[in-house]
Amino acid sequence: MDRMMELWKTQEGTLHRLETPEPGCWVRLTDPDEKELAWVKETFGIPGKDLEGPMDLQETPGARVTDESAQILLDVPALSQGVDGGFQAIPLGLVVKKDVVVTVSSRKNTVLDALTAGKGPVPDTASPVEFVNGVLAAVARNYQDDLRKLDARRQEVETRAGEQVAKQDLITLHNVETSLIWFGCSLKANVKALEQLRDQLSSSEFCQEQETLEEAAGEMNQAAAMTDMYREIASATRGLVADLADNRLNNVMKFLTSMTLVLAVPTIVSGFYGMNVNEDSIPLADLTHSFLVVVVLTLVLTVLVIVVLKKKKML
To answer: DSSP secondary-structure letter at 208?
Structure first.
């Protein structure tokens, strides 16, 4: 079960778990219940709508800055529930005050898991805006990592396409393209949210931190460009797979048609000899080995048909 509330604080360059809140801490809420939300509201004076918004999976990214706080909502990558190997984007809310940062999400995500596990740079929770900037950069890097994973799966399908395309390969390509669509829409919305944040910071007491967002915005734009590129490549791969499947089907139909023509030769010959007519009117009927002669002639005709079909590249 993902539901939890954790308190963290940066000490000597690493994040440490806290039992009680302290100035300069990070409160991580994952699928919080009403009791946890009420505690955060009362303890840190954060409006309920800022905490409840990220719980709605349909909530769109955006930013709002006041004299006392900043609220940012971004889409972050997460594994799709019920889909084999696919990705989707879920909302992650960040509420920044002078002495605390609160993050809210409906599910666990690898972005915050990596921070608490000490993977990658650890931002200082004592500087809330610096910490948020670190989270934003981590979100962009996470998108880029997941994009590379998706492209690796696409390359696996492309490698097998020359041999045989299985049903699972088609499902994999569908999941890759669906994930890239999620990522593309979410990253563009994230870039707009960061632009809103940057514009609003210039008129607030957080204005001195405005420049620290440039690096995160740059990485987010890079991830958006990567998504567009990978989506075009995935579309080309899907076209390749479709063309190969059509070509294989055409080859099978051509082979079956040719085999029908080949098998028609002995059928036609035997049909003539199976007619209820006077045996004197049947060719070769008076020969001692007439049956053998007819069989040999049938084989010769069949071979001739095969040779003609091969020359026309129908076999």
So the answer is: G
Distance of alpha carbon 305 from alpha carbon 47, whole angstroms: 84
Residues 172-204 have pLDDT tens digits of 888 899 899 999 999 999 999 988 888 887 655
Which residues, in sequence order, are CB contacts of 125 under 8 Å at separation 6+? 8, 9, 10, 15, 24, 25, 26, 101, 131
Tell me the CB-side half-sphere exposure of residue 253, using CA atoms within 13 A. 6
Q: Render pLDDT for 50-62 as a digit per residue (tens, 0 to 9).
A: 898 899 888 899 9
CA dihedral of 176, 114, 210, 229, whole degrees rounded to 10 = -20
Q: Which residue has the tokens 């979410």?
A: 186
Q: Which residue in this structure is represented by tokens 């007491």?
A: 205
pLDDT at 246 over 70: yes
Instruction: Using alpha carbons only, give the angle 87, 88, 94 rounded to the nearest 5 degrees.
Output: 125
Token duo for residue 12: 């000597």
d(CA 46, CA 103): 12
Query: How confident is the model at residue 209, as a pLDDT?
Result: 56
CATH 3.30.460.20 fits 4-247, yes or no: yes
Token readout for 84 is: 């084999």
Query: Cα separations (Å) of 70 from 7, 95, 167?
Result: 19, 6, 48
> pTM for this structure?
0.77
Asked if residues 204 and 66 have their Cβ atoms less than 8 Å apart, the reply is: yes
**Tokens in use for 34?**
């009403």
Q: Which of 126, 129, 136 is nearest to 208 (CA)?
A: 129
* CATH 3.30.460.20-classified regions of the chain: 4-247
Cα–Cα distance list, 131 to 9, 52, 135 (Å): 11, 21, 6
**C-alpha to C-alpha distance for 107 and 29, rounded to whole angstroms:** 9
The three-point CA angle 87-90-94 to 5° equals 140
**Nearest 10 degrees: CA dihedral of 194, 121, 212, 150?**
-30
Q: Is the pLDDT of residue 164 over 60?
A: yes
Is there a contact between 244 and 165 (Cβ–Cβ < 8 Å)? yes
